[in-house]
Specification:
Elements lengths: L1 H6 L13 H15 L10 E5 L3 E3 L4 E2 L12 E7 L2 H20 L3 E2 L19 E2 L3 E5 L7 H9 L8 H4 E3 L13 H8 L10 E6 L2 E6 L13 H19 L4 E4 L10 E8 L3
Parallel strand pairs: 8-9
Antiparallel strand pairs: 1-4, 2-3, 4-6, 4-7, 5-7, 9-10, 10-12, 11-12
Helix pairs in contact: 2-3, 3-7, 6-7
This protein binds flavin mononucleotide (FMN).
């Protein structure tokens, strides 16, 4: 999975080839794996695979991406409880899905804003939401002109400096890039986030990671859900994949009295060898 974290990037232009039968079967296998994966806050995700760009083939209702995605051949959508922790779980589980598909050589992109949520209205019950979807397919050899513009506008390849994201014991002291846990944090840093805002901040204290959200003012207010909660779930998945790779046992636990003005305390990861 670590290789997939390194390799993954958003793909918005797809090739002409349709997904082969065996690829479709692999996607379904990965979906089944994610459905039973344990999420940090105990929510379950329901996933839907569309082997065409239509949400309803019969009525020819095309999944609307407002032209942001070129030639999508298939999509995966999911639904979950519309609460902060539900959305964090969505980020955690859906990113696992994206990384598994990346390992298999498939292109994806998180779409949390630039798709027509209304198309999926029939799937959800009260209190639920389809927060984000992804097209899935073979990446086009050449990214579209529009994709180039999008990436440039949001500086998709840039990341905030390590020393401004990760801290040693408190927010006054930046963490050294030579810290023994730096590699785990780098997996968070290269991860995707909505509009590449990178709202995650982490304090390392002995053998604990404390996750905080530095909200982007006014961001996402027009959406009916907290999009930056998803970013936090993705960060949690990247960090835990790093730990799992090194077989470091951990527990995710919300601690008391960690609130700090300006940052929203989310949860902590405690290494069990403490
Ligand atoms: C929760 C979430 C929502 C996103 N929504 C969109 C979207 O609606 N449209 C889009 O083109 N990209 C979307 N993205 C992709 C980000 O713009 C992208 O991850 C970021 O710019 C970093 O680029 P990279 O994924 O290539 O590393 C979203 C990403 C996340 C995590």
């Amino acid at each position: 999975m670590i290789e997939a974290i390194r390799k993954r990037k958003s793909i918005r232009s797809y090739g002409k080839k349709k997904l082969s039968e065996s690829t479709q079967q692999h996607i379904i296998k990965v979906i089944d794996e994610v459905k039973v994966l344990k999420s940090p806050f105990g929510h379950t995700i329901t996933l839907f695979f569309y082997d065409s760009p239509y949400v309803d083939e019969g009525q020819k209702i095309k999944i609307g991406t407002y032209g942001f995605i070129k030639s999508p051949k298939a999509f995966i959508a999911g639904k979950i409880e519309n609460s902060f922790e539900g959305l964090m779980d969505y980020g955690f589980l859906f990113e696992h899905l994206i990384l598994r598909l990346t390992e298999f050589g498939l292109g994806t992109v998180w779409l949390g804003g630039t798709f027509n949520r209304h198309d999926f209205k029939g799937l959800i019950e009260k209190g639920e939401i389809v927060p984000a979807i992804t097209p899935v397919g073979y990446a086009s050899k050449k990214a579209s002109f529009r994709e180039g513009i999008i990436r440039k506008r949001i500086s998709a390849d840039a990341r905030i400096k390590f020393s401004e994201l990760f801290f040693d014991h408190d927010f006054l002291h930046p963490l050294s890039e030579d810290h023994p846990y730096a590699s785990y944090l780098n997996f968070v840093r290269i991860g995707p986030s909505a509009s590449n805002k990178q709202p995650w901040r982490i304090i390392v204290e002995n053998q604990m990671f404390h996750l905080y959200l530095k909200r982007t003012p006014k961001y996402g207010l027009n959406l009916r859900y907290d999009i930056q909660a998803i970013d936090m779930g993705i960060a949690l998945r990247h960090l835990t994949i790093g730990l799992e790779e090194d077989q470091v046992p951990y527990t995710i636990k919300k601690l008391e009295h960690r609130e700090i003005i300006e940052y929203v305390y989310i949860t902590s990861i405690l290494l069990n060898s403490m």
